[in-house]
Design brief:
123 residues; mainly beta; seven-stranded mixed sheet; four-stranded antiparallel sheet; 1 helix; 6% helix; 48% strand
């Protein structure tokens, strides 16, 4: 079970940190991802961290967002800096054990999903 939190309203240029708590110790066997879906748009993969700790990002967030995991707390984070209005979306955390690359996960999604948390960036 995955539970995302940390969303809210922030001004452009600000920062937020999203958290995704997992029930049980899963990071050693699961890849974890953060997706987002803006109103009227398709869901998109924002960041991915593999079970080995390798990270990958969507081009639009590179240099601004950082995905990380704390195995002791069974939590994955998405640190979002220099936020832009176009980052406004519902953010979801997800997991699976397939080990697929970013480009595949971006298209086909992941097996397990948490409820989303809304991030609103005002201009």
């Amino acid at each position: 079970q995955l539970q995302a939190s940390g969303g809210g309203l922030v001004q452009a240029g600000g920062s937020l940190r999203l958290s995704c708590a997992a029930s049980g110790s899963i990071f050693s066997v699961y890849d974890m991802g953060w997706y987002r879906q803006a109103p009227g748009k398709e869901r998109e993969l924002v960041a991915l961290i593999s079970k080995s700790g390798e990270t990958n990002y969507q081009d639009s967030v590179k240099g601004r967002f950082t995905i990380s995991s704390d195995n002791a707390k069974n939590t994955v984070y998405l640190q979002m800096n220099s936020l832009k209005p176009e980052d406004t979306a519902v953010y979801y955390c997800a997991a699976d054990s397939w080990g697929c690359p970013f480009t595949v996960v971006a298209v086909y999604g992941m097996d397990y999903w948490g409820k989303g948390t809304l991030v609103t960036v005002s201009s």
